[in-house]
Amino acid sequence: MKPPSPKLSPVTALRAAGRLLLLPLLPLLPLCCSAALAATPAELLSGYAAQAGSAPMAARGQQFFTATHGRDWQCASCHGALPTQAGKHAATGKPIAALAPAFNPLRFTDPAKVEKWFRRNCNDVVGRECSAAEKADLLAWLLTLKP
Q1: pTM value?
Q2: Which residues contact 27 (CB under 8 A, 6 or more apart)?
Q3: DSSP structure class, residue 61
């Protein structure tokens, strides 16, 4: 005779079923969400480059940072001509910490914050969301700036 199987609560059963359904998708996670899982600026850069399908170019990132893109502001309007130093918001005057990771170790370490600020700032500067290639180029340039 077979021993009775333990009864699972509905919540436990749902959790177990969810794990079984998601388990086959785990190997695909780095392909679709690498930028979302990054913990360092270099990992974010790698994720954006993978999404863009091309190698980032620091020179293009510097050009993007200093150029006007058909709007009133450029990145440098708030972050300063030297993103190695603190800047201030062009409209509010609110201080902004240095953008370059070597001068601000908290920069580009929280993927959710990075995406939030890229979305806001790109909309202000470019009038749309930045592409993965633009993000990769900009981050590649910022990573070249050293003390």
Answers
A1: 0.73
A2: none
A3: H
